[in-house]
Each structure stands twice: as structure tokens, then as C-alpha cells.
Amino acid sequence: MTIYDFNIVKTNGERMPLYHFKDKVVLIVNTASKCTFTPQFEDLQKLYEQYHTHGVEIIGFPCNQFGEQEPGSNQEASSFCQINYGVKFPIVAKLEVNGDNAHPLFDYLKKTAPFQGFDETNFNAKLLKMMITEKSPEWLYGDSIKWNFTKFLIDQEGNVIRRFEPTDELDALKSSIDDLLHQRTSQG
């Protein structure tokens, strides 16, 4: 099984199979427009601009499960990203990433790239853990998505390579993308 076995829904309600992204490195991100991590849209857009021509796609999945930080409609979520951060990568329809109504794609992602724990040496990770403990303790344990802006890196064959938590450094993500692109270049 790969991500190509799943379909997603665009903001206009149209279904889109993820095999549409075959042969590309894909970064899947659950997003929210009213979150402490929302400014990450700026970094994600910069990544998109840097890597898109090299075969990298980013897909934003708005989610309202964490502190109700994505309360608007699908169109409002997408427009917010474009207007405030110049986002050009696809922002799809809102969905749930945890619980009984979680989208099957996110169930697959969580099982394939389980939560590895909080980096206790990272101040922001410590703060996030404290906030989750206080506001949403149900997300603290197991492989659930812990908060908005959790990222999953997918290789060119649709396989989940790595999970990045919202507090992980952008440099680690860039390094992993570079590795995937380099592997493809050296193989072909």
C-alpha cells in the first residue's frame, strides 16, 4: 500500500486520486489558519518555490480538531493561505486526522510513520507537550497527530519516509527532501 491508494477532496468538492502525484516527492501537512504554527505557511511556500521545479509537491490539509483553529469553510481556509502567505501549493478540503472520523489517508500515515516522542531538548516541543497535556490530552498518547502542522514526507513511489512534528526544524525537512531528490538523480 502507498498514498496512491487514497483519494482526497479538493475545496470545490471534486475527488482527486493521490496517484496524480506519482513520481514526485510529496509533503503532506495538516494545517490551520489560527494556530501558533500558522506562520509555517511562509516557510512551506518558500520550500515549494525552491523545490517544486525539481518534482516536489506540498499538499495542505486543513483540520479543525486542534483548538478549533480552522473554523471556516474549505474556501475560507484556502483563501486565507493565498492572501496572507502567498501559498501556491494545493490546500484541499477540510478533514479530520484523528479519531473515528479520521480520513483513511491519515490513519495510514500515522500507522506507517508513528509518533517518535517529543524532543525534550527543544523548548518549543516542551511547550507543545504542555499545551497538549492541558488542552487536548486525548492526543498526547499513541500515534495520533499531536497538533497542526505535522508533516509526512513521501518518496517518488508513494511510500511514507518520515514524520515531522510541528516543532521540528525546517533544516531537517530540507535535508530529507534533498536526500530523496539526490537518490533519484543518482539512480537514474
Automatic annotation (TrEMBL):
<dbReference type="InterPro" id="IPR036249">
    <property type="entry name" value="Thioredoxin-like_sf"/>
</dbReference>
<comment type="similarity">
    <text>Belongs to the glutathione peroxidase family.</text>
</comment>
<feature type="active site">
    <location>
        <position position="35"/>
    </location>
</feature>
<keyword id="KW-0575">Peroxidase</keyword>
<dbReference type="GO" id="GO:0034599">
    <property type="term" value="P:cellular response to oxidative stress"/>
</dbReference>
<dbReference type="GO" id="GO:0004601">
    <property type="term" value="F:peroxidase activity"/>
</dbReference>
<dbReference type="InterPro" id="IPR029760">
    <property type="entry name" value="GPX_CS"/>
</dbReference>
<keyword id="KW-0560">Oxidoreductase</keyword>
<dbReference type="InterPro" id="IPR000889">
    <property type="entry name" value="Glutathione_peroxidase"/>
</dbReference>
<protein>
    <recommendedName>
        <fullName>Glutathione peroxidase</fullName>
    </recommendedName>
</protein>
<dbReference type="Pfam" id="PF00255">
    <property type="entry name" value="GSHPx"/>
</dbReference>
